[in-house]
Amino acid sequence: MTGAPLDDAPVITRFAPSPTGRLHVGNIRSAVLNWLTARAAGGRFILRLDDTDAERSTEAFGDAIRRDLDWLGLHWDESFRQSERFDAYHAAADRLVRDGKLYEAFETPEELELRRRTLAMRGLPPIYDRAALKLSEAERAALRAEGRRPVRRFLLDGQDESWEDLVRGTERVDCTAISDPVLFRADGQLLYTLASVVDDAETGITHVIRGADHVTNTGAQLQIFRALEQTPPAFGHHSLLTGPEGEGLSKRLGSLSIGQLRDAGIEAIALVSFLARLGSARPVEPATRMEDVIAGFALSSFGRAPTKFDEAELTLHSAKTLRAFEHAAVAPRLAGLGVPPDEAPGFWAAVGPNLDRLEEAGAWWALCRDGAVPIVAPEDAGFVAEALAVLPPRPWSTETWGAWTGALKAETGRKGKALFRPLRLALTGRDRGPDMALLMPHLRVTPAPEAIQAAAAV
Known about the structure:
Helices cover 44% and strands 11% of the residues. By secondary structure, it is an alpha/beta fold.
């Protein structure tokens, strides 16, 4: 069974988070790969909220998921909740019962654990032994009378399942080595395994890209597709993320929520473009337009090996992306920081190439608007005072800095660092920063002579 849809079928992918927590880099990676697979093929992307766990699912988490996806630019074409589709799931379950593929099992968790230990001690796979299939109706009735509530398991057919995985190549699952999966818990709660199959079939999903930890689950789900006489999608299982030293990332994912990365100043498109290449044969490169991320995406370039995720590398990639933005891409955000629209293009040309986070532009604008606390070394106090006294009158242009420092060089003989550094420190209070030629037109306040004297006396 290949699990591949017809070649001419429109590509439809989905992202199916459970609204039981915030999105983190691990599950957003699946969202990115599914979204890009759909968009690269001109297809459709569906957001499905897997909220069948009523106790843990909340509206607040569902709203947070939507906000995170919107912020990332991963807009969906259709959205629905699994809690709206119980009728469809139970109809599928009824069919499986009629066909002898869904059966009740009454073992307690303690009994199952004892059986697993016994099998493990004998060197056998710790899989369910299907003892429930041997129970008579009278025995099942007696167990119910004891107060036992059964789970419902899907009867695997014992065949190997193989498919051409979109990431891993030929993949095979030995279904004799796995237990019949539980589709309904003892409390009646429907599990992901069945609901996902029904949804994928009825919404026409053609490609499912998810983590490598789902490979075994895919083997079982392929049999459920077949039992329901539905065509399965093509499956791709991307590698799991590890820390920068190869350590497991799972314990750190809580600290890598999308909301926290956003608050840390990570650019949305930088996160998408980073995850779109991480673990593939293609280099991670800055992209300032989503069209470029889509054009450079190829699921076939990803490999099977665990993928190292380094937050420091993401931060550096985000800074490179930010510095590559044209003014138009950041204009609304600069306006939000108080930068006047008429000055914003030139101001961005000055400060943009020096920023790690866009919020830093706000500090630079405050410096331009309000002036800086000058820093003046005692030995430079006379030079700085004389230099400011001959500073050309406003308005300043991008030529002002060069003309001013050129004249000072000719008059004083200073050059290089001895010329430029004292002037930068006096005007900005910073040792480094934007190209002063580009920044000068936006400096509205220059230090007064008494401020220079006070700074030199510190």
